[in-house]
Amino acid sequence: MSQHRHPGAPGRAGAVPALPDLPEATVARLPEYLRALHALSEAGHDTVSSEGLANAAGVNSAKLRKDLSHLGSYGTRGVGYDVTLLIEQIESVLGLTQCRSVALVGVGNLGHALAGYDGFASRGFRIAALFDADRARVGEEINGLVVRHVDELARVAVEESISIGVIATPAPAAQAVADQLVAVGVTSILNFAPCVLSVPEGVDVRKVDLAIELQILSFHEHRKASLTALPGGLVATDTQEAIGT
Amino acid sequence: MSQHRHPGAPGRAGAVPALPDLPEATVARLPEYLRALHALSEAGHDTVSSEGLANAAGVNSAKLRKDLSHLGSYGTRGVGYDVTLLIEQIESVLGLTQCRSVALVGVGNLGHALAGYDGFASRGFRIAALFDADRARVGEEINGLVVRHVDELARVAVEESISIGVIATPAPAAQAVADQLVAVGVTSILNFAPCVLSVPEGVDVRKVDLAIELQILSFHEHRKASLTALPGGLVATDTQEAIGT
DNA sequence: CGCGATTTGTGCACCTCTTCACAAGCGCCT
DNA sequence: AGGCGCTTGTGAAGAGGTGCACAAATCGCG
Question: In B 54-113, which Cβ lie closer than 7 Å to strand D?
Answer without folding.
Answer: 59-60, 62-63, 65-66, 76-79
